[in-house]
Amino acid sequence: MESKLPQLGTSIFTYMTGLANQHNALNLSQGFPEFDAPALLKQRLAHYSEQGFNQYSPSSGITPLQQQIAALVKRNYQLDISASDTVTVTSGATEALFVAIQAITHPGDEIIIFDPAYDSYEPAIELAGGRAVHIAMQAPDYAINWQQVAEAITDKTRGIIINSPHNPSAKTLKASDFSALKALLVKHDLLLISDEVYEHIAFDDTPHISVLTDPELFERAFVISSFGKTFHCTGWKMGYCVAPPALATEFRKIHQYVTFSSFTPAQLALADMLTEQSEHIDELSAFYQQKRDVLVKALQSSRFTILPSEGTYFLLLDYSAISELDDMAFCEYLVKEVGVAAIPLSVFYQNTPDDKVIRLCFAKEDNTLIAAAEKLCSL
Question: Can you give the residue ranges of the Aminotransferase class I/classII large domain (predicted)?
Fold first, then answer.
């Protein structure tokens, strides 16, 4: 059989986690929390399952959850939206990204993405018959060169995908970025997919800027969010997309033939969580900032150069003072010889950069972070 994605193999996350398990290494590679989901969320999941809420939900999501998402958008971003017309619950943010990409991409279309880029973007674009146009961001700033973006736009360009707070660089887009982005979208009549799965994890009293705060941007955008990141339940695979009604209609046409609907007991539990313990979201940035600071402090005596983490639960380290190995080889060395698993940043690029940078996940217990840092400081 001829492969539709011949260049793809096992994901870096699966590979590094498997290697970490094989060598009994501390796993700071794959981006999942080491701690559990909130007690209320788990209790309500069990409750609704026991009460028999185990059949299909409406394809776009149960009404109480849609309404709570709309209330969250209003509270955080001061935008009034119609829950029934704009909010679609999905089986994880990756499904939402896939569906949004399928909705906007026709054969021959070009979609602009920014490297280092989350690895699901390009395969989804290719499966839709489109082509990903890569624009590289450079260490240590990982800033977008908007003049370069302007020069990359052609008559085939259909849309742009942004991600802020950004995985894997842990940087956030600023007001000036959104001003430049909006000018290009309007000038060329382009669509936007905004990957905001880490929206509630922004640091140093600098709030996340969402596309939902700008009505002109939102009118041409799909905004993707993740309950898994917000409530420490990545294994539930629960996310959602907020889009204006015309775009939501096209999104739902495809969503209904991908998963049709998402896990019903989890939707009901999430609606209760948003209703009764919304403070969890308000406290999330401070929670993860403390984790970041524990790891940064523990690494101060190391030979790594620590790059700023403005959001997400990731931290980048430059190891150029330690080794001449490429980042993949260095990460394999770290697992096998040092006992810490990390992710090489080059895998997020189309063209491998010369940077010697790795990514650590600090969504771990403090003792895990300190133990991993001690091993890294031994280099």
Answer: 25-375
